[in-house]
Amino acid sequence: MSNPTTIPASDGVPFVDTVRDFDAPISAVFKAHVDPDLLAKWLGPRSTSMNITQYNAVTGGSWRYENGDVTNPFSFRGVFHTVEADALIIMTSEFDGAPNQVVISTTTFEEVDGRTRMQAHEVYPSVEARDMALATGMNYGVIEGYERLDELLAA
């Protein structure tokens, strides 16, 4: 069963909140966020490929991946500021197509009614930067990625 993904983005503020419940234990949902082999199987829409070139999901670790297709590849990179097993990931991300526009993301994992609730709070450097990310279809990729994660967790 797929649970809904909510991604409210209020006018005039430079952040996006994402809330998603998963019918799986916290340990499995968290692992899918920090294990590069698992991450490559679900992150982003089905129509793109994922090439993770670096992914050290520990406090102080860094990451980089390329996503997209052969004719339109794009890449992201960042640093893990805090990683607490089964509870918290605080990280930065920067899209190579928008240099110097660093986003900081705080993701929490908690058990709610026998499910895992994942909540992400992403802070952009400006409202304009946030709006540009939303205009690229970010929500579509997030929603489809979490549907793919449902499938991975159910397998």
Structural commentary:
The chain is α+β, with helices and mostly antiparallel strands and 155 residues long. It has a single domain (5-154), classed as START domain (Alpha-D-Glucose-1,6-Bisphosphate, Chain A, domain 4, 2-Layer Sandwich), CATH 3.30.530.20. The chain is built from 4 helices and 8 strands. It has helices at residues 26-34, 36-42, 127-135, 138-154, and strands spanning 5-6, 15-22, 49-55, 62-69, 72-84, 88-95, 103-112, 115-123. Strand 1 and strand 2 form a beta hairpin. The longest helix has 17 residues, at 138-154. The protein is globular.
By DSSP, the count of extended strands is 8
CATH architecture grouping: 2-Layer Sandwich
C-alpha geometry: globular
- Largest sheet features: 8 strands, antiparallel
Q: Any idea what the CATH superfamily is called?
A: START domain
Outline:
With 155 residues, the chain is α+β, with helices and mostly antiparallel strands.
Top keywords for this entry?
single chain, 155 residues, alpha+beta, Alpha-D-Glucose-1,6-Bisphosphate, Chain A, domain 4
Secondary-structure map:
Elements (H helix, E strand, L loop, with lengths): L4 E2 L8 E8 L3 H9 L1 H7 L6 E7 L6 E8 L2 E13 L3 E8 L7 E10 L2 E9 L3 H9 L2 H17 L1
Antiparallel strand pairs: 1-2, 2-8, 3-4, 4-5, 5-6, 6-7, 7-8
Helix pairs in contact: 1-2
